[in-house]
Write a structure and sequence with these properties.
Shape of chain A: rod-shaped
Largest sheet of chain A: 5 strands, antiparallel
Radius of gyration of chain B: 13 Å
CATH superfamily of the largest domain in chain A: Histidine kinase-like ATPase, C-terminal domain
Largest sheet of chain B: 5 strands, parallel
Helix content of chain B: 40-55%
Number of strands of chain A: 17
CATH topology of chain B: Rossmann fold
CATH architecture of the largest domain in chain A: 2-Layer Sandwich
Distance between the termini of chain A: 106 Å
Shape of chain B: globular
Number of strands of chain B: 5
Oligomer: heterodimer
Number of helices of chain A: 18
Structural class of chain A: alpha+beta
Structural class of chain B: alpha/beta
Number of domains of chain B: 1
Strand content of chain B: 15-25%
Radius of gyration of chain A: 48 Å
């Protein structure tokens, strides 16, 4: 564009003029079709002296409105402080900034500047490239990344990341905070170590091979990993492994220990119930054998001596009683199962009177055992259902006899304990482990279900607990395997100043 | 003279079996546990042993049956299992232990007598 001052003076031939004009027009067209906005700025005045149509379009001005505006009206010059530095150099530089267009609309741009001198003046050529799309894409990407990061950081699902190294080993490469929280581990130190080093418990399972497949094939894999400690579920996880790129995978897991424990408890309870049913059938068959057999002998034409007849009747009577007791137990349990309280006929009764039937029960069944029976302060009054406490004592005593060999000691002792009366029934029998002792009051529990010769439905202790607790008392057990068992229960004293004692406290 | 050995930990059942099976040409012995029963069987040499399965002590009825059936000197002794365990698996276990017959409690007196006659 630079011309020598002399050429202006000589009149151009018309042809030459048209040629130059057309060249200028072509040049103008080139500029106007450039996608970048181009401004020419008079550096002395700071005014925009020319601009291409992309520049006008970028800023939303009509071209004539843009010409003559100061550059600083459309761009923050302070941000472009390099303008000054570059003023006298011919160096170029680019900077990302925003242009202020018509109506104060802001346009993100990348600006390149260089300077030129012609017609004795210094001019800046500002080339502005619209980067709003790129910025939008970048912002969208940042947003997506933030969303993903937020999801990974705040999901309750644990996440482990693995990469296959050249030796096809799975290398732990990251985790999220939920993984720390679920497993109670600081995973940070695991990064760079192999799966087998980090989780030795997984080394012997199919997990490493499956994870490798996920890394190699990109196909997801789902499974449940359950870890046991002493036959109890220590941890259970549902794991979804999926590819996160070539040779990489994520294992997303949730803690399902509670659910698995509940499922196992349910299975155990259902197993105990079916075992109970077969035990119940067996328990009913046993007394029925005698009842049916002796009755057939009596009804039929068997030649029985009068002594044998009496004997048969006695057995029928005895076994009918046993059968009724089993049925009573079953009905009690059915009541408790359906949420009904066991019916009690409460009355004021002296302690020694209350336990008199227990003493009688023990006397008739304990031949061969050493008996210790001592009730202190037998004249104390308790409020109790005499028959039900008799049932409690029968269950405790028959249990003591059932689980201990003849020749050992069966002891019953009673004493006052503040506002309660405490009864202890002790034996020197096979005893129980602490685990068995914890479960002894559970329904259908039998200390040794493998020893099927020890009869019983496993309901006795459960009924004992229900009965004692509905009296407002407490029941517990102390036991050592091979040494014996001591059952304790209390009944609230119903005397003078503590009529309401026990049940309300 | 036929010899019968009754083995059951329930005293009433032993007594019932004894009364049902007693007769002029029979000698009956009773035992309340497996260990005792094995000892008695080897001296008494019964023709039939009536065996309960579930008994206290380490030796249950099935173990007694196995021991008797594994002893060539007891080859002539028949074993009738009389038990309150009624599952098919119990029946199979009894025959696997060498039992000659299997009867569940509560049994019919006439049927018991018939089974014994058959074994004798």
């Amino acid at each position: 564009m630079s011309k020598s001052p002399d050429s202006c003076k000589a009149p151009l031939e018309e042809n030459e003029f048209r040629k130059r004009l057309s060249r200028l027009e072509r040049f103008r067209s080139l500029l106007d079709h450039a996608r970048d906005g181009i401004f020419l700025v008079d550096l002395e005045s700071g005014l925009i002296v020319d601009a291409n149509s992309s520049a006008c379009h970028l800023l939303g001005f009509d071209c004539p409105a843009l010409i003559g505006r100061p550059l600083e009206a459309v761009v923050d010059l302070e941000q472009l402080n390099w303008l000054g530095e570059l003023e006298d150099s011919s160096e170029e530089g680019t900077v990302a900034t925003v242009l202020r267009g018509a109506g104060d609309g802001l346009v993100p741009v990348e600006v390149r500047f260089n300077m030129d001198r012609f017609e004795g003046g210094a001019y800046g050529v500002v080339v502005a490239r619209d980067i709003s799309e790129r910025e939008q894409a970048k912002a969208a990407l940042r947003e997506r990344e933030a969303l993903l990061r937020n999801f990974i950081e705040s999901t309750p699902l644990g996440i482990h990341l693995y990469q296959l190294n050249e030796q096809k080993q799975l290398i732990f490469s990251g985790s999220n905070p939920a993984a720390d929280a679920i497993l109670g581990l600081r995973h940070q130190s695991f990064i760079g170590r192999t799966l087998q080093e980090v989780f030795p418990a997984l080394a012997e399972t199919e997990v490493p091979d499956r994870y490798r497949e996920v890394c190699q094939t990109g196909l997801p894999w789902k499974n449940e990993q359950i870890f046991y400690l002493n036959d109890k579920i220590q941890g259970a996880f549902e794991v979804h492994a999926f590819s996160t790129g070539t040779g990489c995978m994520a294992a997303m897991f949730m803690d399902i220990s509670e659910r698995k424990r509940a499922e196992e408890a349910l299975q155990e309870s259902s197993r105990m119930k079916s075992e109970f049913i077969s035990t119940a059938a067996h328990e009913l068959r046993t007394p029925l054998t005698s009842i049916r057999g002796f009755a057939q002998l009596l009804v039929g034409n068997a030649e029985l001596t009068p002594e044998e007849q009496r004997e048969s009747l006695a057995y029928i009577h005895q076994k009918t009683e046993a059968l009724s007791r089993i049925l009573d137990d079953l009905l009690d349990i059915a009541r408790v199962e359906s949420g009904q309280a066991l019916p009690l006929k409460m009355g004021m009764i002296r302690v020694d009177e209350l336990f008199q039937p227990g003493a009688a029960y023990l006397k008739t069944r304990s031949a061969g055992y050493h008996l210790l029976w001592s009730l202190e302060e037998g004249d104390l009054l308790v409020s109790a259902d005499r028959e039900r406490i008799g049932q409690v004592m029968e269950n405790l005593l028959s249990n003591a006899l059932k689980y201990s060999p003849p020749g050992t000691e069966i002891g019953v002792s009673g004493q006052r304990l503040k506002h309660e009366y405490l009864i202890a029934v002790s034996d020197q029998g096979i005893g129980m482990t602490s685990d068995q002792a914890l479960r002894v009051f559970d329904k259908f529990f039998r200390a040794d279900s493998s020893n099927t010769a020890i009869s019983g439905l496993g309901l006795g202790m459960s009924i004992v607990r229900d009965l004692v607790e509905s009296h407002g008392g407490r029941v517990w057990v102390e036991s050592l395997p091979g040494e014996g068992t001591r059952f304790f229960f209390t009944l609230p004293l119903a005397g003078e100043d503590n009529l309401s004692g026990g049940t309300d406290h | 003279m036929k010899r019968l050995l009754i083995v059951d930990d329930q005293e009433d059942v032993c007594r019932l079996l004894e009364i049902v099976l007693q007769g002029p040409a029979r000698e009956i012995r009773v035992s309340g546990n497996g260990e005792d029963a094995l000892r008695l069987a080897r001296s008494f040499r019964p023709d039939v042993v009536l065996l309960d399965i579930m008994m206290p002590g380490g030796i249950d009825g099935l173990a007694v049956a196995r021991s008797l059936k594994g002893d060539p000197e007891m080859a002539g002794t028949k074993v009738l299992i009389v038990t309150a365990r009624t599952l098919q698996a119990d029946r199979e276990a009894a025959f696997a232990a060498g039992a000659d017959d299997f009867l569940t409690k509560p049994f019919d007196v006439a049927e018991l007598q018939e089974r014994i006659e058959n074994l004798l």
